[in-house]
Structure formats: C-alpha cells, structure tokens
Amino acid sequence: MAGQSQNIQTLLEAEKEAQKLVQQSRQYRTQRLKDAHSEATKEIEDYKAQKEQEFKSYEASHTGNTQSVQATVDKETDAKLRVISQQYEKNKDAVVKKLLDRVILVQPELHRNLEKLEE
After folding, report:
1. What is the DSSP string of 58-72?
2. What does the buried/exposed string (b/e) look like for 78-108 if buried means 16 or more CB atoms within 10 Å of the residue's CB?
3. What are the pLDDT digits (tens) for 12-71?
C-alpha cells in the first residue's frame, strides 16, 4: 500500500510540474504575442514616418514646378484675354450693324417649301 501511495504522490507531483510548465508556456506565448505586436506597431510607425517623409520631399520638389507652371499659364491666359479684347473692340461695331440689318431690313418672301394651292 505504501508503494501505491508513493506512486500516487509521484503522479500528483508530476501533474503539478506539468501544470507549471503549461502555465509557463502560456505566459511565454502571451509575452511573445505582446512583443510581436509591439514590434509590428513600431515597424508600422517607422514605415509610415518614412513614407510621409518621402511624400513631403516629393511634394517639395514638385511645388516649385507647379508654381512656375501656374505663372506660365497665367501669362498665356492674360495674353489670350488681351487678344480677345482687341478683337472684340475691333469687330463690335460691325457685328452690331449686321444684327441690326438682319432685324430691321427684312425682305418678305415665301418659304421655299410652300406650294401654291389651286382652288
């Protein structure tokens, strides 16, 4: 009987030891997951900062181009507006005269599709 009691005691001690190992494994796994999560978060933040810096440098390098292009477009627009204004001033009297002639000097005539009805 003493042998059985001793075997049972040994089994209980082995079971407690196994539970301790399982608990340690769970704690280790939990800690590794937390570490992996914090590492991933740090990598994401680093990557985000790097891409933000790349974007800012790209934006800074192309901002000057945008301003110079805008200035060129503004000059071209002003030149075209001056040409249009000059053409307007030059041709406005002739256009008004043509419009008035069309409205005032009407020559009545029959429409070409009108057929004479015979009664």
Report:
1. HHHHHHHHHHHHHHH
2. eeeeeeeeeeeeeeeeeeeeeeeeeeeeeee
3. 899 999 999 999 999 999 999 999 999 999 999 999 999 999 999 988 887 767 778 888
Q: DSSP state, 76?
A: H
Taking the C-alpha atoms of residue 38 and residue 43, their distance in angstroms, rounded to an integer, is 9
Q: Write down the pTM of the prediction.
A: 0.44
DSSP 7-61: HHHHHHHHHHHHHHHHHHHHHHHHHHHHHHHHHHHHHHHHHHHHHHHHHHHHHHH
* pLDDT tens per residue across span 75-98: 999 999 999 999 999 999 999 999
Report how far residue 29's alpha carbon sits from residue 53's, in angstroms, rounded to the nearest whole number: 36
The dihedral sign for the CA sequence 56, 61, 66, 68:
positive
Q: Measured between alpha carbons, how far is 25 from 16 in angstroms, rounded to an integer?
A: 14
